[in-house]
């Protein structure tokens, strides 16, 4: 029997890789699409004809109930969110509504229409924020440092609560930063690889950055969507940290990206207070032993390979 999946956030980085994986596995893929004046399909251009889109919005409960009725899914992946931490200080209410309450809207739609469907919530290492222990594991206490992080903590706990209240198969994946050539250009990795390529081609003169000392645990999005799928294939629902277990500074990222193009980053990078956050998350480092043991999940792409892949992709795109 063909399995069916319903995915929110399909136009984003993770939605596109997850949809590819599900299609490869023979799933019928339904996806929530919110109306925009100009459709942005760049990430899913190559697979959009294989996906059945259902119009709606995480903020509109009725549209989610309708989507559940049309798709009748075996698995639901809730990836939609206002996902940029910086914007969450500029639009804290909207972030709370989509990244936080939006999870309840989605869970309610599942509970009312298809309570036996398996549910994945895209939780985040940003929930650890001002970390109280390193490395962070599933039981590390949360201390979010942005409106985004606060909203994700709500989304995490409401997922756990629906599992415990209604016996639903609901999992929360606590994913550390993951990147790819499909990453939005405002996120630091893509901002750097895109700028390095532009500078190499003479299309940009400098790169304005915030805190170069921040440390992150960066992996490849294509590896991480496999973990999402694995979580929903287990006998029991649970929460999992997904990470590489390696930490690098933003400066190391810049060095590798510019070095790939034989550029000295110090000639181009300018520190601009505009990109320094009101409250910073200084470091994140995950320990995903539980996922490795229970899910058999393995990482394939390392940090340097990831940055190189992104620089090469940006250079090729911009050279066209
Ligand atoms: P993106 O920002 O690339 O994609 C976000 C998606 O959410 C887009 O498809 C966007 O649609 C959609 N969306 C936003 N608001 C709404 C709404 N109100 N209703 C319906 N759809 C909406 O994020 P990523 O792919 O990087 O991340 C996927 C999820 O995983 C997010 O929830 C993110 O917070 C979380 N996460 C990401 C990590 C990462 O490192 N990438 C790490 C941990 C968690 P549109 O195109 O219409 O704007
Ligand atoms: P993050 O990702 O906030 O970790 O959230 P981002 O790439 O935006 O920032 C990472 C770190 O880099 C520092 N930084 C800069 N960041 C940006 N965007 N632009 C800059 O110029 C810059 N200079 C320094 C930041 O201060 C920060 O410390 C991402 C998102 O995908 C979330 O949705 C997800 O939940 C988390 O990763 C895990």
UniProtKB/TrEMBL annotation:
| SUPFAM superfamilies, A to Z | NAD(P)-binding Rossmann-fold domains
Task: Give the Gene3D superfamilies listed for this entry.
Answer: NAD(P)-binding Rossmann-like Domain, UDP-galactose 4-epimerase, domain 1
**Where would I find the NAD(P)-binding domain in this sequence?**
6-310
Could you tell me the keywords of this UniProt record? Lyase, NADP
List the Pfam families.
Answer: GDP_Man_Dehyd (PF16363)
EC numbers for this chain: 4.2.1.47
Which cofactor names does the annotation list? Answer: NADP(+)
| HAMAP family, per database record | GDP_Man_dehydratase (MF_00955)
The UniProt entry's sequence similarity note says:
Belongs to the NAD(P)-dependent epimerase/dehydratase family. GDP-mannose 4,6-dehydratase subfamily.
Q: What is this protein called?
A: GDP-mannose 4,6-dehydratase
Give the organism the record lists: Paenibacillus herberti
